[in-house]
Write a structure and sequence with these properties.
single chain; alpha+beta; Jelly Rolls; five-stranded mixed beta barrel; five-stranded antiparallel β-sheet
Length: about 350
């Protein structure tokens, strides 16, 4: 993945993390703003309110997998599927179905009970009571086109019928229900829930800030990626050359010439150290298309100063080229790069002193 794309992706992920942090912050504000009442004072309460007390359930629900008594449960069925995308095969777990079931129960802190209606999806602290194969009576998930189910599992989580709960919702008709948003049910109590919410908000915010900083740095600096070629002077680490469409005369079998399209660029090269040099052109690591680069080095009079030693033994080799120069006096030279018209519009250029075995010839 290009560094710019990776940087943008990190910033985009940071935005999602920040949204999650804002959701957590809203939850914390909701807990703080809802007054805490005794359960026995529920009769006169209206609007957002919270209670804390022991669960009372005359006829509790039975969790479908474990059979444990509860006042609320969620079950999630997953399927492990094998999918084919051309020659590639992927195996991954996917959610096949998820359901929640709740009931009406009472909370009592010793001052009298208050009814809690938990029949809608709740924001609840849940205890995992089962994870494994589908018990008898559960329908296996459906197999969709182009996928093969190789395994299934089900996870069950509950709010136990003997729990002590902090519940936050809205009073209506003498009962505590969801109101605007989800009913909050916590086995940790109000203060512990509020503390964990604050901690989560700080952690998510710090994580999002780190992601933004890292993403921006990667997008700007692009570590590990070659930079555009600037002024060429003596040796040059691999840098990016942007080519332009052009044409060249190609000799035909009958002696005539034909205009053929190429990608082309000419760059000035200042040499301050006498010696022999090796000039390399190659395809970007993630670029697609046959590049077939060629390199010509000329002096100020247009005389050739390079010997092309390229030997193509495969299509991959056709995307690289190295040439050795003659002994160069200090001065200004030109490096003429061109490549296949159907190849990528960028190539990498590198210059280094010729190996000693070559320089001594």
């Amino acid at each position: 993945m290009p560094m710019l794309t990776l940087g943008i992706a990190l910033v985009g992920f940071a935005v999602l993390v920040l949204i999650a942090a804002l959701v957590v912050r809203h939850k914390g504000q909701k807990i703080l703003s809802a007054p805490v009442r005794k359960t026995g004072e529920a009769a006169g309460a209206q609007g957002p309110v919270s209670f804390e007390g022991a669960v009372r359930a005359n006829d509790p629900l039975r969790a479908p997998c474990s059979g444990q008594p509860c006042v609320y449960y969620e079950v999630q069925v997953e399927k492990k599927v094998k999918t084919k995308h051309g020659a590639n095969t992927q195996v991954a777990w996917k959610t096949a179905s998820k359901q929640h079931v709740g009931s009406t129960f009472w909370l009592d802190d010793g001052s009298g009970p208050v009814a809690v209606v938990a029949q809608e999806a709740a924001d609840a602290d849940l205890t995992k009571t089962y994870s494994g194969a589908l018990p008898a009576g559960f329908q296996p998930p459906k197999q969709m086109p182009n996928e093969e189910i190789v395994d299934t599992r089900i996870t069950e989580k509950i709010v136990p019928a003997d729990a002590r709960l902090f519940a936050l919702g809205a009073m209506a008709n003498g009962q505590l229900a969801a109101g605007k948003g989800k009913l909050i049910l916590s086995t940790r109590g109000r203060e512990a829930l509020l503390g964990s919410t604050r901690k989560l908000f700080v952690g998510l915010t710090a994580f999002a800030t780190t992601l933004v900083a890292a993403g921006a740095l990667i997008a700007i600096v692009k570590p590990g990626e070659a930079r555009p070629c600037g002024t060429l002077k003596d040796g040059q680490r691999l840098c990016v050359v942007k080519t332009e469409m052009s044409t060249t005369d190609e000799m035909q079998a009958d002696g005539s010439t034909k205009k053929v399209p190429i990608r082309h660029q000419v760059m000035k090269w200042e040499v301050t150290k006498e010696g022999k040099w090796q000039v390399e052109a190659k395809r970007q690591p993630r670029a697609k298309g046959r590049l077939a680069p060629s390199i010509a080095v000329t002096d100020k009079w247009g005389l050739p100063m390079a010997v092309d030693l390229k030997i193509m033994i495969s299509d991959e080799a056709a995307s690289d080229n190295k040439v050795k120069t003659k002994n160069l006096e200090p001065g200004t030279y030109e490096i003429d790069l061109w490549s296949n018209a159907n190849g990528p519009d960028e190539m990498l250029l590198g210059i280094e002193p010729a190996p000693q075995t070559e320089a001594s010839k």
